[in-house]
């Protein structure tokens, strides 16, 4: 089946049509999707009709799936540990009123790339809408290859060999979440990643950056933090960003976490329901 890719931004991202998800995606079509994800960084599919089961099965074509962390945020809503909850509902399906949980979700409104706080990075995320609010709750994206290529040469030279430390609790605390518990700290210790990386599948260099990045290894904390902040601001200038609106259930966005950043945006989360479920695919270990 030949896909159609309609670019959504002059520099990255496309809406893909021509995939029939109802019959399972054949290997040829899957290969076309993979190529598109590597090329565009962000691929949007409308009205896929995917269910929890077929979402997970399709995601497995990309590689091994991460499991959502067990720590104590709340009882889980889903039968499948492969599903991450990006929505605002409690396990009974009611709108969340738990303040701690709402603060935790707010962390998603900072620019980030999924799971950079894990040493074993995630390559792809597949976020599927089950219920969307009538207004707000768009997801924003930026391509870090585009950002890297636009950096002044002296900046590129300055950051070439730097390593950043990423910690889940850093971004959560930035968003107002309280100091993590000992259990939470144990579950998610910090990880270290090079700031500049080669995105092999496209042969382009990229920034690996996120609000989870707390400092630069070997630099005074404040100085590293300032650099990270400046790079995130540079990479997310309006001309580099794309807002994707969710039209309804079944909409799916696949992004490559190794070369993009994204963020959730506000909506009336105590008034409207937003049920979003994500699978996350580990980067293959031979990379
Ligand atoms: C995610 C995420 C943003 C959103 O699921 O990883 O950041 O708009 N989601 O829900
Ligand atoms: Mn995310």
Describe this protein's structure.
- This protein has a single domain (4-282), classed as Double-stranded beta-helix (4-Layer Sandwich), CATH 3.60.130.10.
- The chain is built from 8 helices and 15 strands.
- The chain has helices spanning 27-40, 52-60, 99-106, 144-150, 153-159, 168-174, 182-187, 221-235, and strands at residues 4-7, 14-17, 42-45, 84-85, 122-131, 139-143, 163-166, 191-194, 196-199, 204-207, 213-216, 241-244, 252-256, 260-264, 275-282.
- The longest helix is centred in the C-terminal third of the chain and has 15 residues, at 221-235.
- N-oxalylglycine binds next to strand 5, strand 14 and strand 15.
- The site of manganese (II) ion (MN) has 4 residues, from loops.
Overall body shape: globular
Give the strand content.
15-25%
Number of strands: 15
Bound molecules: N-oxalylglycine, manganese (II) ion
Major sheet: order of its strands?
1-2-3-13-5-15-4
Reported by name, the CATH topology is Double-stranded beta-helix
Report the order of strands and helices: EEHEHEHEEHHEHHEEEEHEEEE
Q: Can you count the helices?
A: 8
Percentage of helical residues? 25-40%
Q: Give a quick account of the main beta sheet: strands, pairing sense, barrel closure.
A: 7 strands, mixed
| Structural class by helix and strand composition | alpha+beta
- Spatial gap, N to C terminus: 29 Å
Low-confidence stretches: none
CATH homologous superfamily label: Clavaminate synthase-like
């Amino acid at each position: 089946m030949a896909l159609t890719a309609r670019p959504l931004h002059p520099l990255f991202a496309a809406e893909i049509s021509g995939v029939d998800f109802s019959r399972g995606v054949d290997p040829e079509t899957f290969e076309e999707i993979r190529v598109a994800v590597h090329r565009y960084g962000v691929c949007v599919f409308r009205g896929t009709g995917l269910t929890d089961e077929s979402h997970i099965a399709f995601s497995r074509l990309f590689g091994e799936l991460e499991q959502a962390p067990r720590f104590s945020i709340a009882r889980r809503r889903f039968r499948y540990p492969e599903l991450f909850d990006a929505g605002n509902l409690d396990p009974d399906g009611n709108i969340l009123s738990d303040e701690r949980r709402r603060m935790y979700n707010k962390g998603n409104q900072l620019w980030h790339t999924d799971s950079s706080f894990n040493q074993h990075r995630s390559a792809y995320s597949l976020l599927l809408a089950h219920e969307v609010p009538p207004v707000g709750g768009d997801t924003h994206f930026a391509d870090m290859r585009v950002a890297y290529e636009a950096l002044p040469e002296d900046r590129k030279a300055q950051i070439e060999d730097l390593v950043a430390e990423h910690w889940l609790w850093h971004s959560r605390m930035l968003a107002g979440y309280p100091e993590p518990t000992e259990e939470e700290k144990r579950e998610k210790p910090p990880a270290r990643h090079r700031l500049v990386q080669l995105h092999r599948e496209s042969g382009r260099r990229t920034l690996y950056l996120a609000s989870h990045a707390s400092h630069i290894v070997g630099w005074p904390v404040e100085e590293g933090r300032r650099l990270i902040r400046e790079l995130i601001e540079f990479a997310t200038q309006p001309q580099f960003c794309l807002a994707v609106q969710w039209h309804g259930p079944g909409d799916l966005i696949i992004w490559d976490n190794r070369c993009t950043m994204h963020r959730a945006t506000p909506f009336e989360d105590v008034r409207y329901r937003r049920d979003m479920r994500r699978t996350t695919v580990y980067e293959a270990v031979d990379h």
